Amino acid sequence: MFQNFKRVQAIRPQVLDGASATSYVIDLAGATECNIVLSVGATDAAITALKLQESDTKTDATTLATGTDCTGLVFGTSADPLTGSTSVTPTATSDGYAYCLSFNTKNRKRFVQLVATAENTTVGAALSADAFLLLEQGPKSTSDRGYDGMLTA
Asked: Which end of the chain is more exposed for a tag (fewer CB within 10 A), N or C?
């Protein structure tokens, strides 16, 4: 079960208040599919931007070199694939909600990065995000799978 999956922490748990999240660049090399899940905790702030950007190169662990928006993966403008209606960004009352960006890596650039920005309020928005990559060949160790510890039964 999950032998060919790898987890990458895209956004470590943090609270945003009038700022963009510190987001880690995800390397898609060897992956065929990717699901990025943003989890929203307690919030009184709307997320004003939630989108995926891509680039052929990265500057460092948290910076794409000339990132561009991925068509179909921009909340607030891209259509929901199940309903066809325009997707919505998390609101100030989206406590406990999860948002997923799912895509095939074919015809994508090598590096992607999740962009999440919250409006300025009293408390802000608590959030985190993980990417789950389906790999052509499965990782050989727990750390290669993106975990510090792992149990299977």
From this structure: C
CATH number for region 5-136 = 2.60.120.380
Whole-angstrom Cα distance, residue 31 to residue 28? 5
* Beta sheet of 5-16, edge-to-edge order: 5-16, 125-135, 31-43, 98-104
Q: Where are the domains of the chain?
A: 5-136
Tell me, yes or no, if the pTM score tops 0.70.
yes
Q: pLDDT confidence of 137, banded at 50, 70, 90?
A: confident
Distance of CA 65 to the CA centre of its chain: 18
Q: Look at residues 140, 153, 118 and name the one whose alpha carbon lies nearest to residue 18.
A: 118
pLDDT score of 2 more than 70: no
> Could you tell me the CA-to-CA distances from 133 to 29, 36, 61, 96 in Å, in that order?
10, 9, 18, 23
Tokens of 107: 């015809």
Tokens of residue 86, six digits = 């325009």
Q: Quote the distance between the C-alpha of residue 101 and its chain's center.
A: 7
Residue 74, amino acid: V
